[in-house]
């Protein structure tokens, strides 16, 4: 055998024995990826997940499938992902409820909202909006936030307040409103905004502090009467609506929501990074960006590090709100 040929054979043999490159070892994703929505279909968490999933499917060449797993203010779905394999095939569309409010509201949590998750990115932030059943509002003579406060004070316990579940920002927005106005309304938690909105539109409930994107179509259709948004500033999607603080008599009121992708703790950093980058790219694309903005959502796409900082800050903020409101869940 000639020396050059022998060297080539030895080199080829040695190369075959070397470890495969990382991309060959971790050909992710090689099968469908699921995004767990911890609430029923029809709410803002579901709307955002279903808007983002097709974009991620195109980016990665595999289906991103939505699974709705409602219950316990989002804890059921969040716990499902927390206990899933950290292989990049199970993601959570987490919320301010699952990752900031619930740890302070529930005496026993099935998961650790910090240790059990790898934050990927903030998808969007949204204000909540105070809406009423139009027929009920007319019957009670309520046309504004001051009207609502006056009626609630004169009729303690008569108004029924729907929410997407215990511990959600929709629930806590109502509890904060009750605390700051000295009123009492009966809280009815549902398994998501969708079912709650159906009962509100049907007249079984009086009012709700819903996320703006899920309430927007019903407001535009005249099926809900919007009184104010819960953010510190007016929403560009409904600039005619005042803030609750602006409408008075609830100075300093602010309670907004946010939604973000999280993976189980231990998910490879390169998968988390790729997910964040493609999500940010999708949220920055004109079509999806304008679609979300028109619904009242503000797209983000921040880095995993910044999302982690946000969760830390929001956990502290909402713990104080829960304590001040006196809200409790057994």
Task: Please describe the structure with a list of short key phrases separated by commas or semicolons.
330 residues, alpha/beta, 10 strands, disordered N terminus
- Fraction of residues in β-strands: 15-25%
Report the principal-axis shape.
Answer: globular
Helix content: 40-55%
Termini separation: 81 Å
Order of helices and strands: HHEHEHEHEHHEHEHEHEHEHHEH
Main sheet makeup: 10 strands, mixed
Separate helix tally: 14
Structural class: alpha/beta
Give a count of the beta strands, DSSP E runs of length 2 or more. 10
> pLDDT average, as an integer?
91
Low-pLDDT residue intervals, each spanning 5 or more residues: 1-6, 8-25
Radius of gyration: 23 Å
Tell me what the structure shows.
The chain has 330 residues and is an alpha/beta fold. It is 46% helix and 18% strand. The protein is built from 14 helices and ten strands. Strands 1, 2, 3, 4, 5, 6, 7, 8, 9 and 10 form a ten-stranded mixed beta sheet that branches. The chain starts with a helix and ends in a 5-residue tail after the last helix. 49% of the residues are buried.
SSE arrangement:
Blueprint: H1 3-17, H2 22-25, E1 33-37, H3 44-60, E2 64-68, H4 75-82, E3 90-95, H5 96-105, E4 117-132, H6 134-140, H7 145-154, E5 160-163, H8 169-181, E6 186-189, H9 193-201, E7 207-211, H10 212-220, E8 225-229, H11 244-247, E9 256-264, H12 269-284, H13 286-294, E10 298-299, H14 304-325
Parallel strand pairs: 1-2, 1-3, 5-6, 5-7
Antiparallel strand pairs: 3-9, 4-7, 4-8, 4-9, 4-10
Short structural summary:
With 330 residues, the protein is of the alpha/beta class. It has helices at residues 3-17, 22-25, 44-60, 75-82, 96-105, 134-140, 145-154, 169-181, 193-201, 212-220, 244-247, 269-284, 286-294, 304-325, and strands spanning 33-37, 64-68, 90-95, 117-132, 160-163, 186-189, 207-211, 225-229, 256-264, 298-299. Helix 5 packs across helix 14 and helix 8 runs parallel beside helix 14.
